[in-house]
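I am hoping you can look over what I have pasted underneath with an eye to the fold:
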Amino acid sequence: MKNLEGFSQVIGAIDRSHISIRAPSKIILIEKIYSDSGYANYDWLLVPYKDNGHLTQVQNHYNYIHSTTRIKIEQAFGLLKSHWRVLQNPIETNFKIVSHIVSCCYILHNICEEIIDEFDIISDQVLINNGTTSEVNIINDTERDLIADYIFSK
């Protein structure tokens, strides 16, 4: 896993942008989750130092790196949630499968970014109002064909 602004093994952040899941009854976490200062600092959760005006240079640097990392995670989750409907509501499945679902969304997103210059999102409401579902199906078929060709060529 790539280091992200000084933090290695970053798997997620808790804040206003997250991917909702059905919480498991028992949680065993090895990695840390990054959060804003609205949460307490637990052994599984990293929060920034509260800035009371007396932070050391090390603490200020930690807060900067922490904030940069958390913002990138929030942006990534926001982008994924805007493209993949499965991530917009709580994922009602076995906790062990959730990371695979999210990983698949990342992989599909990366394939789309690599193959298709512009990944247009057309809302269901626009399709209903305009009655253009047949045109969209043709576009989707073309995009699907591009993805199939890409996967086959690997």
About this structure: The mean pLDDT is 70. Helices lie at 57-83, 95-115, 124-130, 133-153. The chain has four helices and three strands.
